[in-house]
Amino acid sequence: MIKVGDTLPQATLMEFSEVEGNGCSIGPNPVPVATATAGKTIALFALPGAFTPTCSAKHVPGYLEKFSELKAAGIDEIWCVSVNDAFVMGAWARDLKTDGKVRMLGDGDAAFTKATGLTLDLTGKGMGLRSNRYSMLVKDGKVTSLNIEAPGKFEVSDAATMLAQAKA
Predict the structure, then answer these.
(1) Is 80 in contact with 101 (CB distance < 8 Å)?
(2) Fewest beta carbons less than 10 Å away: which of 42, 131, 156, 157?
(3) Annotated domain spans of the chain
């Protein structure tokens, strides 16, 4: 399992873009993790699935609410990662109005999630292999803090915890 001090795994996440610009075409675009984190401070949080109750009502909204404070604390980008395809993440981004604040990144085949060792098997609940709920502060591709939730909990991966770590 990934730990503080480790470099993020070599993986490519996918992001849905509704408008063309900055070298991105309309539709799903690859986001190579190593390239996208180079020289940046990223608040990355992951969750079991798009449109799920805790994720939609608390996790993503908390990061949207704390956006300005996180930026002021030195966060360059906020990433939400989920084992969903880019189209689902794009629809969820529209629904939650995350544009320009939280990058909604799909890990459709769970390659990134598997490489971090932070998988959550929800096969018995009809959801298959998903991501555990966690957050991490990443500086130049290296994990500087990691907050992994216990099963069914939402206590340490929230935006307030990330903000306190970013300010430390």
Answers:
(1) no
(2) 156
(3) 12-167
Tell me, what DSSP letter sits at residue 59? Answer: I
Q: Which positions are annotated as active-site residues?
A: 55
Res 151: pLDDT? 85
* Sign of the CA dihedral running 96, 100, 102, 103: positive
Q: What are the φ and ψ backbone dihedral angles of 71, each rounded to 5 degrees? A: -60, -45
Look at 1-5, 6-10, 21-25, 110-114 and tell me which has the smallest mean pLDDT: 21-25
Encoding tokens for residue 109? 């085949």
Residue whose token pair is 């085949």: 109
* Average pLDDT in the chain: 92
Please give the CATH number for the structural domain made up of 12-167: 3.40.30.10
